[in-house]
Design a protein that fits this description.
The complex is a heterotrimer of chains A (107), B (167) and C (323). With 107 residues, chain A is mostly helical. Chain A is built from three helices and no strands. In chain A, helix 1 (9-29) packs antiparallel against helix 2 (33-57) and helix 2 (33-57) runs antiparallel to helix 3 (64-94). Chain A is elongated, with a radius of gyration of 18 Å. Chain B is mostly helical and 167 residues long. Chain B folds into two domains: 3-119, Four Helix Bundle (Hemerythrin (Met), subunit A), CATH 1.20.120.1200; 124-167. Chain B has six helices and no strands. Chain B has helices at residues 3-24, 28-48, 52-77, 89-114, 127-136, 139-164. Chain C is mainly α. Chain C has one domain (2-322). In chain C, 69% of the residues lie in helices and 0% in strands. Chain C contains 13 helices and no strands. The longest helix of chain C has 35 residues, at 10-44. The chains are: A mainly alpha (107), B mainly alpha (167), C mainly alpha (323). Chains in contact: A-B, B-C. At the A-B interface, helix 1, helix 2 and helix 3 of A face helix 1, helix 2, helix 3, helix 4 and helix 5 of B.
Chain lengths: 107, 167, 323
Amino acid sequence: MTDFFYNHLHVYLFVALFLLVSGILGLVYRRTLIGMLVAMELIMNGAGLNLVALNRFIAVENATGMAFTLIIMGIAAAEAAIALGIIILIFRKYRHVEGAELQEMKD
Amino acid sequence: MSIGDLLFLFIVGVTLAGALAAVLAGSIVYALMGLVVTMFGVAGLYVYLHSPFLAMVQILIYVGAITVLIAFAIMLIGPQYRRPKEWTTLGKLGAAAGVAVVTLGLFVKFVMEVFPRTKAPAFTVTTKQIGALFFKDLVLPFELISLLIVVAILGAIMLALFARGDK
Amino acid sequence: MEQLISIIGAQAFTMIAGLIGVIAFVVVNALALTWAERKVAGHMQRRIGPKEVGPYGLIQPIADAIKLLGKEILTPGAVDKPLYVIAPILIFVPVLVSFIVIPFDARLVVSDIGVGILVILAFSSLTVLSILLAGWGSNNKYALMGAVRSIAQNIAYEIPLLLALLPVIMIAGSFSLTAIVEAQKGLWFVVYQPVAFIIYFIAAVAETNRTPFDLPEAESELVAGYHTEYSGMRFALFFLAEYTNMFIVSAIAVTFFLGGYQGPILPGVVWFLLKAYLVVFVIMWLKWTYPRVRFDQLLNISWKVLIPLAFINLLITGGILKL
């Protein structure tokens, strides 16, 4: 790395990939639904970072990557709101929020 | 190694550590704090990517709104007395190392081939251009996201009314 | 001195000097405001307020500070230690960051970031997080309920705050605070945007948890809200943060609506501090005049009155600007 670290694309892509893999590990490892939601937010952050990094280094003409990251933030917010509403309803009915125990629709 | 460089390495380290904490921590509130740290780290990285507007909006929306929302839900659900069985600390360290190894492998195999190491081009996009983009090229996604947010609000209200037992 | 500057670099030196100045200002400001609060409260209630300790009670806040600092730093046994300890420290980060961008004079800014006001708004959401940590970490029903109420109030009033500041940003055409003050050279924005000023003022008073919106600290209802379990130095930190927040909110009101540091004869800093402390005085005046708002009234005011008004104001401003 002869140049400064932050002037290269690779570090940002590595961090975004790390966030993605951590998020997937979280989805698999976490038992409670809220823990899975936290992992989902990690994945979305990673995706946003990816877009902005590629915008700055590869597609430098306009700001499409950044605008799309703003849209991703809006999507993450809407998704978190609805997911939490559903989780609270599940808690009221079943008195727990563990994903593995919710088996009503199972055969 | 100027101070900007060191700060960048610190922010990258903080982001990675926060992501691991968000995934592997025992209590869900500690995981939430790890998520907050990760979001701050990503905002710092946005500043290094010449987009301070996006960094501040990231903090405003993610830390200010989404984290508070999740925390509200955690507080309404209450402390989990029946904590699900989790791995030992050694197992967690192994998982963290596993994540790092898998990421490095994927990175070296797929990413480094597609994007060769070149010089960073100059980047002169301003915040005004993001706004102009939303009104010229990306009008449709803009309208769709506002529609999505309205639908999400209505959905949340319906869920709340459903919980109360109204029709 | 020159050696120090050459080692760190001129910009880092100004930043460090600015930070030290800011911290000193925060402490002095908090001391002055506690004194002013008790004096104003006294006079509003037809009594004098503190007058024993020093002339006009001027040394009273120092006596208070010595008392609070002298108390034992007691950590209750059942609290969640990391969260409990971090909460009072975390509540200071938005305060310090906000001070970095506020223009005290034309060139007396620690660092004029291009997205100035967004920095202040983004970091004020950290206050919410700190209240959350304090409430959850205290492991106490009353603290948790106080924290939930406080957070609900805070996020409900964040929206009219943002919406009231937006028309000013649209008129000035920039996020940077210095640019907004410079854009008020002809006429202060309070003349162009009176409704926005009133909405911002009400939302700001609610954000800093002052009466009439101080339900989270309602002493008669919830023991002491989210800082029930805190005592001594940590409680002093919460207290300090509240008073400094009050100053920052008035400073933003002055910068956005009342012309910032502009004024005829005296230097800019004097005008700025004069106007800011005038707004602080009005906030204190409100505290000792109005009774507390009920919780359902609280959210009603925000969602049913302030937000529609702010939206209509924004629409009208946008329309007028376009024509």
